[in-house]
Amino acid sequence: MTAAISTPCVKICVVDPVSALCIGCGRTIDEIAGWGGMSEAQRLAVMAALDSRLVSMRARGARAGRAGRRGRAG
């Protein structure tokens, strides 16, 4: 019996064009593509960084959204 592979995937697989991170899990395309070939320790190391990546990505998006609304006639 094969052990399940740890994964942060939430099945929202869309890559943000600015950060190049998946908006669902926070991984890069290279990390997603190589996930099955990583050791469990490597996967856990990547997963440890994902929350901060997603927070940063969303904060940049919120700032960009506010900047894009400036100057619009209301």
Structural commentary:
The chain has 74 residues and is mostly helical. It has a domain at 10-60. Helices cover 49% and strands 0% of the residues. The chain has helices spanning 29-34, 40-69. The longest helix is centred in the last third of the chain and has 30 residues, at 40-69. The protein starts with 28 loop residues before the first helix and ends in a 5-residue tail after the last helix. 11% of the residues are buried. The mean pLDDT is 88.
Strand content: under 5%
| Secondary-structure element string | HH
Gyration radius, rounded: 16 Å
Total helical segments: 2
Count of β-strands: 0
Question: Largest sheet at a glance?
Answer: none
Fraction in helix: 40-55%
Q: Whole-number average pLDDT? A: 88
Termini separation (Å)?
Answer: 61 Å
Helices and strands: which structural class?
A: mainly alpha
Contiguous low-pLDDT stretches (5 residues minimum) are none
Principal-axis shape: elongated
